[in-house]
Amino acid sequence: MTEPSNSAGDNAQKSAAGKQKKPTSAYRKVRRAFAKTRLRVPLTWLRHRGLESADVIYASYPKSGSTWARFVLYEILTGKPAGFRKTNTEMPGIGLQSKALRLLPGGGRLIATHEDYQKEYRKAIYVTRDPRDIVLAEYAFYTVLDYYHDDLDHFIDSFLLTKNCSVYGYGPWQRHIATWLDSPIAGTDNMLLLRFEDLRNDPLPGFVRMVEFLGVDVDMDKIRRAVENNTIQKMREKENKEPVRSSIRGRFVREGAVRGWLSKLTTEQARRIEEHAGGSMRRMGYPLLSELDVSELNLDSDSGSGSIKQERDTALQV
After folding, report:
1. 119-123 LR contacts (CB < 8 Å, sep 24+)
2. Could you give phi then psi for residue 15, rounded to 5 degrees?
3. Across 76-104, average pLDDT
4. Which of 126, 148, 124, 119 has its CA nearest to residue 135?
5. CA atoms within 13 A of residue 255's CA, in its CB half-sphere
6. What are residue 110's DSSP bridge partners?
7. Which residue of 24, 33, 214, 305 is most buried, as measured by CB atoms within 10 A?
8. pTM of the full structure
């Protein structure tokens, strides 16, 4: 796929006065510091007020493809082209549910969240992603936004071990996913569990399952068009038109890679993640490094310096 020009970044860097913008602000940094304190508990409670029985939650850990999936669902449910402003306004995250369009049966709303399971969530779609890919996406995102200034090794430790996790207060991936997999709605008709990797590899069946779960009568052609309108390339074009803060120094819409970690993490980094998150990874069918065969390690992409693929290629030459 040809890489489009970074006009999103070019547009976002200049204000009306021609001054270069910063990817974040002092206010946003303070807000993220606040999110990691105990004061986050009452704020989370306040943000969950106003949920109704007909509402459905779209839940995931950050950097698990929720923006892409919500763009597709927005087009399916509204029949309108998805964009950053429209989707985030009319199909918003938790705390802004009063502004959400009532698109579901019974006047329900589709509301996004990155929170642990909360007792207020009566019905939910929960999408997981391999934590080895998540940690790379989060590290790139937070670095671009000037929220994180240490190296990847330290970020991995924060991602795995820190109670409130790196920048946001969502906690380690393995704890987050456990709250959902062990929740009262898990294994019932009120929770649809999907993997990001399956959606990326074959989107149509996954979105059909979501639409059926939401109880919406939509024809297959409409679902297919919504998927086709939100490929990586087309979402990057949308980002060019509506640049977000991370567009200033890079891209918000990244590759959406599946097993991209094989060409970017070292063996030691991958094993450290598996040491702490391996149990939850197995529950979702993510194979550990030792469980991958040689053919799965033989990637087509270029390997980064010190990556697992590079280590494997070197070993084969010895």
Report:
1. 119/184, 120/48, 120/51, 121/51, 121/57, 121/59, 121/183, 121/185, 122/51, 122/53, 122/55, 122/185, 122/190, 123/55, 123/56, 123/57, 123/185, 123/190, 123/191
2. -90, 180
3. 94
4. 148
5. 14
6. 56
7. 214
8. 0.80
Q: On the CB side of 10, how many CA atoms lie within 13 Å of its CA?
A: 6
- Mean pLDDT confidence for 62-79: 94
Tokens for 160? 């795995």
| Cα three-residue angle 143-276-174, rounded to 5 degrees | 70
| Chain-centroid distance, C-alpha 207 | 16
Rounded Cα distance between 35 and 171, Å, is 11
Backbone angles phi, psi at 104, to 5 degrees: -105, 165
What would the two tokens of residue 59 be?
Answer: 């839940």
| Single-letter residue type at 161 | L
CA distances from 284 to 196, 261, 267 (A): 11, 17, 21
314 contacts: CB under 8 Å, gap ≥ 6: none
What are the φ and ψ backbone dihedral angles of 56, each rounded to 5 degrees? -125, 135
Torsion of CA 48, 52, 56, 58, to 10 degrees: -10
Pairwise CA distance, residues 188 & 196, whole Å = 20
The CA distance from 176 to 193, in Å, is: 14
Per residue in 218-264, pLDDT (tens digit) is 999 999 999 999 988 888 887 777 765 544 444 555 566 778 899 99
- The first and second tokens of residue 32, run together, are 């993220």
- Give ∠ CA 265-268-274 in degrees, rounded to 5: 85
**Where do the domains of the chain lie, and which CATH numbers do they carry?**
7-317 (3.40.50.300)
